[in-house]
Design goal:
The complex is a heterodimer. Chain A contains 2 helices and 10 strands. By secondary structure, chain A is mostly beta strands. An 8-stranded antiparallel barrel of chain A has the order 1-2-3-5-6-8-9-10. The longest helix of chain A is centred in the N-terminal third of the chain and has 14 residues. Helix content of chain B is 4%, strand content 50%. Chain B is built from 1 helix and 21 strands. In chain B, strand 6 and strand 7 form a beta hairpin. The mean pLDDT of chain B is 92. Classes of the chains: A mainly beta, B mainly beta. At the A-B interface, helix 2, strand 4, strand 5, strand 6 and strand 8 of A face helix 1, strand 3 and strand 9 of B.
């Protein structure tokens, strides 16, 4: 029953956001790549917005949109290519440069109010994370090949978060949450990231 | 109001798993992902080649997959020129060069009067690192000290030094032969390859001579072969000029135990 509630809430949120009561939240996010992704990308601050339904009983749903323009951790990455011929291997010591690595991220979340008081809400949330990147790079492998790439990937996975919300009167609220995301980057494998989010909300009644 | 989250174990189990499972923080310094490597030393060899040793200072975040050297006679090596991969033994690896190709693809044997430039590289799963340029200044080819110094271009089979004329190589059945010719008999050195600087060991297996072996035969009406196991010393005294020394190598001369000594130069 709770799963169906989550799905229906997200669908309702998507379809009639401006006709329902809820919060419009403007967010400052810090996306913190971990693991393999963190090898190449710096932590990045991005901005976003979210539409958050009010808690009904103890549940609410939300949909959020964020944008990040990443910087790489190195201007030039040392990359290796190999070519084997007649039992001999040649190691090409190459270079890869990223011109662009941008991400648009979409979160569909279901939050549970763990502690709910008039002036304080502690919540935990689970949801789906979707992303689309725009990437451009060039790579040079001496004696083997040169390549340039412009395109993108799709990211999809799971997000979990813990956060606090502090209502300010009946109209405003501030929110902070810490997210953890696990996702697949198509044709590349499994990755993960953390995210810190600070939001300022306006209630629509 | 504190809500009864224990009513939703699946939700909170998955939330806890998502938040706390396997967060691998990236390394603080991105350079730590990559190896660190240096050229340690080089050793001139008696055959004119040089053996260069590199050391893995740090493997980086993952194990080393490749380690090697690149050498040039001019300019700074980029890692591609005359690349040779080495085998890691502990944290060191070595490669041996006996020549280099220039930019036009022409191959030249190493010139000990020339300066060469070397860089080592190492690659792991994340990428690679390349060392600073190591300069190999002109060097002296090491020589082998034979334990005897008989007169040049002579041989002795136990009855005194005999002057002889050295020549070679000639080819016979795919083998290289160097000769000492005199009125008292002829000596033949038979090898599997063209002569080179180094140590050889005498062999009596004419048809199965290894690369570091030589069969020495003496012909004076009869045919005799120097016994196996003696050392032959070969120095390259100048470009493609070799001095050969044998010190008292035993053999059987018609029932008489004697020894063979020689020193000669062949080019």
């Amino acid at each position: 029953m709770r799963i169906s509630f989550f799905i229906l809430s997200c669908a309702f949120t998507l379809c009639t956001p401006l006709l329902s009561t809820g919060q419009l939240t403007l967010n400052i996010n810090q996306f913190r790549p971990t693991g393999e992704l963190g090898k190449g990308l710096e932590n990045k601050i991005g901005f976003g917005a979210a539409w958050v339904q009010p808690f009904e009983d103890v549940w609410r749903s939300s949909i959020g949109l964020s944008f990040f323009k990443f910087d790489t951790r190195m201007d030039v990455f040392p990359v290796v290519g190999t070519i084997s011929s007649g039992g001999n291997t040649f190691v090409s010591l190459g270079e890869q440069r990223f011109e662009k690595y941008n991400l648009i991220a979409l979160d569909f979340m279901a939050d549970y109010a763990i502690v709910e008081r008039d002036q304080f809400i502690l919540f935990g949330g689970l949801g789906i994370f979707l992303g689309a990147t725009s990437v451009a790079y060039t790579a040079e492998y001496p004696e083997i090949k040169s390549e340039s790439y412009s395109g993108g990937d799709r990211w999809f996975g799971l997000a979990g978060r813990v956060g606090v919300e502090l209502p300010i009167g009946d109209t405003f609220a501030v929110r902070a949450s810490a997210d953890r995301k696990y996702f697949v980057i198509t044709e590349n494998g499994y990755y993960s990231a953390n995210q810190i989010q600070l939001g300022f909300s306006y209630y629509f009644n | 109001m504190q809500n009864s989250y224990y009513k939703y174990p699946a939700f909170f189990s998955l939330l806890m798993a998502t938040l706390f499972v396997s967060c691998v923080r990236p390394l603080k310094d991105v350079e730590d992902y990559y190896p660190e490597v240096e050229v340690v030393s080089y050793t001139p060899n008696i055959d004119g080649s040089i053996t260069i040793t590199g050391r893995i200072v740090s493997t980086g975040h993952t194990e080393i997959e490749y380690a090697g050297m690149s050498i040039t006679s001019t300019g700074t090596p980029t890692g591609s020129e005359n690349q040779q991969l080495g085998n890691l033994s502990g944290d060191t690896f070595s490669v041996t060069y006996d020549g280099v190709e220039d930019e036009d693809g022409s191959y030249f044997e190493l010139d000990p009067d020339h300066t060469y430039f070397v860089r080592a590289f190492a690659a792991n799963d994340d990428g690679y690192a390349i060392s600073e340029t190591f300069t190999i200044d002109p060097w002296e080819i090491p020589t082998i000290d034979a334990p005897c110094t008989p007169p040049l271009n002579t041989y002795n089979v136990g009855s005194g030094n005999v002057s002889a004329f050295a020549s070679g190589p000639t080819m016979s059945a795919g083998q290289y032969q160097y000769s000492l010719t005199s009125l008292n008999g002829d000596v033949m050195f038979t090898m599997n390859q063209p002569i080179h600087a180094g140590f050889y060991t005498t062999s009596t297996e004419g048809g199965f001579i290894a690369n570091d072996e030589v069969m020495i035969s003496y012909t004076n009406f009869n045919y005799y072969v120097i016994s196996a196991g003696s050392t032959v010393y070969v120095n390259e005294t100048s470009d493609n000029v070799f001095e050969v020394t044998v010190c008292a190598a035993p053999f059987n001369l018609g029932g008489l135990s004697t020894s063979f000594t020689t020193r000669f130069v062949v080019d």
